[in-house]
Amino acid sequence: MNSGVLKKHIFSFGVTVIFMILPPSHILQAENLSKRVSSDRWLFRHLNLSLVTGEQLALQGASGVGKSTLLNLLAGLEEPDSGRILYYAQDLALMSEPDRLALRRTAFGFVFQAFHLMPHLNALQNVMVPCLLAGMPVNQAAEQASHLLDLLGLSQSFEAFPSTLSGGEQQRVSLARALVHKPTLVLADEPTGNLDPKTATQALDLLCNTCRSQNAALLMVTHSADAAARLDRTFVLTG
Ligand SMILES: Nc1ncnc2c1ncn2[C@@H]1O[C@H](COP(=O)(O)OP(=O)(O)OP(=O)(O)O)[C@@H](O)[C@H]1O
């Protein structure tokens, strides 16, 4: 073995050992998080939650307990009353608004409960938005968006505007939009809540498999015990 090859072997062995010794890195940490929605109502107090890179976590809890609010806090869309949220050890509250916006656009993927599709854009254009915001060429964005819409059974609906789509179709467009730019963290609020059982299984397969293959962490709100059981771990939010 010549010395160049030997050095390469020693280097890759060293990298492997470092990965084995280091604890898994936290992509997201919520520390001592508290949120109050009125003078006498706290949704949660001193909540701690963390996700490691590539981990899939189900978020469960009774209706109205604060799951969507927690997702909004973790995404930096709302501010906690106390506590902090770290993305790879960076405190979201200490980032400038442009940096936080850039992080949300490039690293995060969202499936909102209310979809939040842009009404003046068709399904394909809605899914292309995160790619275009990340600076991807239009052709490539269209290719990635149409591939995901195909996989979600929406190949006939590229040109359809949100108002002409059913709730389940809008939800699948919203799911495609959350994944299309290959985010590192996907926050999904009941992403299969509007789908029939067969379509829900297909959509969940796509969500979980895409996150696994891209080593993206997934935090998914779900009322379904079956859906939760597919993920690595469940966190139950209690009032
Ligand atoms: N900004 C706010 N001001 C006042 N009340 C709020 C605010 N945000 C959330 N709430 C209240 O907090 C509670 C939790 O809402 P949230 O949507 O987070 O619950 P959830 O657990 O996601 O519920 P579901 O499972 O029904 O979707 C609700 O009672 C809601 O009305």
From TrEMBL:
Its cellular-component GO annotations read: plasma membrane
Query: What residue ranges are annotated as transmembrane?
Result: none
**Alphabetical list of Pfam families matching this protein:** ABC_tran
Its domain of life reads Bacteria
List residues of the ABC transporter domain: 28-239
Molecular functions (GO terms): ATP binding; ATP hydrolysis activity; transmembrane transporter activity
Instruction: Recite the UniProt keywords alphabetically.
Output: ATP-binding, Cell inner membrane, Cell membrane, Membrane, Nucleotide-binding, Transport
UniProt xrefs under PANTHER family: IMPORT ATP-BINDING PROTEIN (PTHR24220), TRANSPORTER, PUTATIVE-RELATED (PTHR24220:SF659)
What is the protein named?
Putative ABC transport system ATP-binding protein
Q: Which organism is it from?
A: Polynucleobacter brandtiae
